[in-house]
Amino acid sequence: MRILHAADSYLPKVGGIELHVRDRMAHQRSTGDEAMLITAAPGPDIDGVRRVCPDRAAGPDESRVAVERAIDELGPDVVHVHASIFSPFALVAARTAARRGVPVLVTMHSMWSGLGPLPELAGVGLGLRRLPIVWSAVSRRAAQPLQRMLGPEMPVHVLPNAVDLDRWHPVDAAEPDVPTVLAVMRLTRIKRTMPLIRMLADLPLVAPGARAVVVGDGPQRAAAHRFITRRGLDGVISLPGRLAQEEIHRLLTRSAVFIAPAQRESFGIAALEARAMGLPVIGSSLSGLTEFVTDGVDGFLAPDDAGMLSRLGQLLTDSTLRRRITTHNREVAPRHDWAYTTRVARTLYSLAATEAARAARPVAVPAASRMAITR
C-alpha cells in the first residue's frame, strides 16, 4: 500500500507528532508498505519526505498545489493527515486529497477543547464536514470534542499512539533507597509545569525523603527553577533539562512512580513508556491517559491536583500498594504496541477507501426525473 502522510511539522523539530509520524512510517515500511510524507516544515532532505516551501511558510494556494502535485506524482492509495490545534497545511491537504477522490484519514493529535468556536469555524471554513473523510483521534478523550464539532453523522474513531515494547519493557533493577518520582514533558503552560512543581514542593509533607526528577525543557523551565530555588527545594526537585532517550530509559529503571499532570494531554507517550516499563502512573482523569491507565490497576487517575498529590503520597509511602501495581504493570504489557496500532490504521484506511468510492459513485436519477429533464 502507498501511504502519503501529511503534517505541518516534522523533524528536525522534536515533538509528539513529529516522532509519532516518523515511527509510524518506519513501522509501515517494515511491513512492506510504501510510506511517504509531505510537510510544510523546513529542514534537511530526508528520504521519503517532501517539503513544501522549505524557506518560508506555505499559503493555502501553495499548499493545495503542492498536495495536488504530490498526489499526481506519487499516486497514494490513501492520504493520512496528522493534525493538531493549529494545522493549516494538514487541513488543506485533507480537503485537497478528498476533492481529488483519494481516500483520506485524518488523525487529531491534540485536544480540541477549551478553544471556543475555533475548531468549528475551521471545519466549516474548510468544508471538511461535507467531504468523504474518515476521522480519528489518538484517544477517546481527544475524540470527544472532535465528535462534537463534526456532529453525530461523522463518527470519530480512535487510532492510538504506540511504543516499541521491545525497547520499553521492564528491566530487573533494585528499587532505589530514595523513592523517586519521574516526569518527562515539555515545560510549558499547557503541560501544567508550574502546577506540577507546586505539587512536588509538598513531597516532604506527603512522602518524607522522596525526591522528584522533571525531565524536559521549555519556556516554563526558568520559572520552575526560580520557584525551586526560592523554596529551598534543590535537594527535592531536580530539573536536568532535555535528555536522550537512553538516559530517560535509565531514569525509568531507577524511579518508583511516573506522574503526568496535564489535563489536556491527548494521549501521553512518555507515560505509556513508563507504564510499559512497569512504573505506576499518576495522571489526570481528564486526559488521554485513560486510554491505557485504569484507576487503581495501572496507577491512579484524579480530576485535580489535590487528588494527584494524595495518590502520589499514597504510592510513595505504601510499599505494598506500589509493589502490587508495579507487579501488574510488569506482568501485563499494554496493548498499545506498533503491531496493534498498525492493524487499526489499516482498518481505517480501508474505511477511507470505501467512503471515497461511495462519494465517487454517480447519483442515480429516477426515471420520472430523467423524463422531466428531457422535456
Distance linking N and C termini: 48 Å
SSE arrangement, N to C: EHEEHEHEHEHEEHHEHEHEHEEHHHH
Q: How much strand?
A: 15-25%
Structural class: alpha/beta
Q: Could you tell me the mean pLDDT?
A: 91
Strand order of the largest sheet: 3-2-1-4-5-6-7
Fraction of helical residues? 40-55%
**Overall 3D shape:** elongated
CATH architecture of the largest domain: 3-Layer(aba) Sandwich
Provide an overview of this structure:
This protein is α/β, with parallel strands linked by helices. Helix content is 42%, strand content 16%. The chain has helices spanning 16-30, 60-74, 88-99, 118-126, 140-150, 193-201, 203-206, 221-230, 245-253, 269-276, 305-317, 319-331, 338-360, 367-374; strands at 2-7, 34-39, 49-51, 78-83, 104-108, 133-137, 156-158, 180-184, 211-215, 237-241, 257-260, 281-284, 299-302. Strands 3-2-1-4-5-6-7 form a 7-stranded parallel sheet, with helices on both faces. Strands 10-9-8-11-12-13 form a 6-stranded parallel sheet, sandwiched between helices. The protein starts with a strand and ends with a helix.
List the helices and strands and how they pair.
Elements: E1 2-7, H1 16-30, E2 34-39, E3 49-51, H2 60-74, E4 78-83, H3 88-99, E5 104-108, H4 118-126, E6 133-137, H5 140-150, E7 156-158, E8 180-184, H6 193-201, H7 203-206, E9 211-215, H8 221-230, E10 237-241, H9 245-253, E11 257-260, H10 269-276, E12 281-284, E13 299-302, H11 305-317, H12 319-331, H13 338-360, H14 367-374
Parallel strand pairs: 1-2, 1-4, 2-3, 4-5, 5-6, 6-7, 8-9, 8-11, 9-10, 11-12, 12-13
